[in-house]
Amino acid sequence: MARQKGIIKLTGKVGDLSFYKSKDGFLAREKGGVEGERIKNDPAFVRTRENGVEFGSSASSGKLLRDSVRTMMQNASDGRVTARLTKVMTQIKNMDPTSARGERTVGVGIATPPAKALLKGFNFNNRAVLGSVLFKSYSVNTGTGVIDLTGFVPINDLNVPSGATHVTLRGAWAKVDFSGAVSSVEETNSQNLPIDGTATTVTLTPTAVPAGAGTDLYLLMLEFFQEVNGVQYTLKNGAFNVLSIVEIQ
DNA sequence: ACTCTTCCCCACAGTCCAAC
DNA sequence: GTTGGACTGTGGGGAAGAGT
Questions:
Q1: If we measure between CA atoms, which residue out of A66, A90, A100 comes closest to residue A80?
Q2: Distance (Å, whole) CA A4 – CA A6
Q3: Which residues of A18-31 are buried (b: 16+ CB within 10 A; e: fewer)?
Q4: Which of A148, A166, A209, A245 lies at 20 to 30 Å from A135 by C-alpha?
Q5: CA distances from A195 to A75, A165, A166, A170, A238 (A)
Q6: pTM for the full model?
Q7: Sign of torsion, CA A161 A172 A138 A193?
């Protein structure tokens, strides 16, 4: 087997050659693997194709969820949400206790405890995780969608990114029907506060109960701003903004 | 009796696919 | 990058055969 003796230790493909690191050191070999056409058509690959179908539907379920909170996600997400969410969705899909192989779905799996617990606490922005930004307890009323923070003192209860002068809190109540591939969301009022020592009781109330049926998701978002001459500017393209699923029913 | 060569089988790592 | 499938080429290790 070809060994790389040079200084350049690379991994990946260059043309038809693969470079990788193994326990024996850095190796180079011809590209191996399977023809794409075989995976698509060969009877030997039924299992693989079944897996592909389930994987694809899990990814779509993730997209359904992301689409439902798209407007909030725009200012509070990182570049790998899709992958992280697909992972969670795959785990939930695996909890489908009835469907045949290749036909298991998130829609069925979500009803199996503890599937929902896998989704609770999901952070859309891994650079700003709720637990490391907000140190104040909150309550979520699953009947009304109201999120409460009593006696919230921004300067004490937040890990404030440097330069931030203001913070906005907002909630949302989403209903996501993974089986029907439909969703609806109602956002709450938002509360914009200067980052100082003033205690405020924050009450975030959805404008309505989201329409339709499905899994109820309650989300909390924190956005940081820097005020200059009376105008609040988004801080560093939302790198420090939080969006998290705080409750699920 | 010992070493070298030629096999074969096994384990391993990489590759592909699905949707985003 | 996320999952779990099957497959491929590769070297390692062991067994058997050939040679010293």
A1: A66
A2: 6
A3: bbeeeeeebeeeee
A4: A209
A5: 19, 5, 5, 16, 17
A6: 0.82
A7: positive
Please determine, looking at this structure, whether the domain spanning A130-248 carries the CATH number 2.60.40.
yes
Cα-to-chain-centroid distance, residue A181 = 18
Domain extent listing, chain A: 1-33, 37-119, 130-248
A33 touches strand B (CB under 7 A): yes
In the block, tokens 């009803």 appear at A111
Report the candidate in A89, A35, A99 with the shortest Cα–Cα distance to residue A58: A89
A118 forms bridges with which residues in the sheet?
A: none
User: What strands, in cross-sheet order, belong to the sheet with A200-204?
Assistant: A139-140, A147-152, A200-204
Give residue-wise pLDDT tens across range A201-234.
999 999 999 998 889 999 999 999 999 998 898 8
Q: Is strand B within 7 Å of residue A48 (CB)?
A: yes
* Token pair belonging to A201: 């009781």
Q: How many CB atoms lie within 10 A of CB A65?
A: 25
List all nucleotides in chain B with at least one atom under 7 A from a protein Cβ. Answer: 12-20
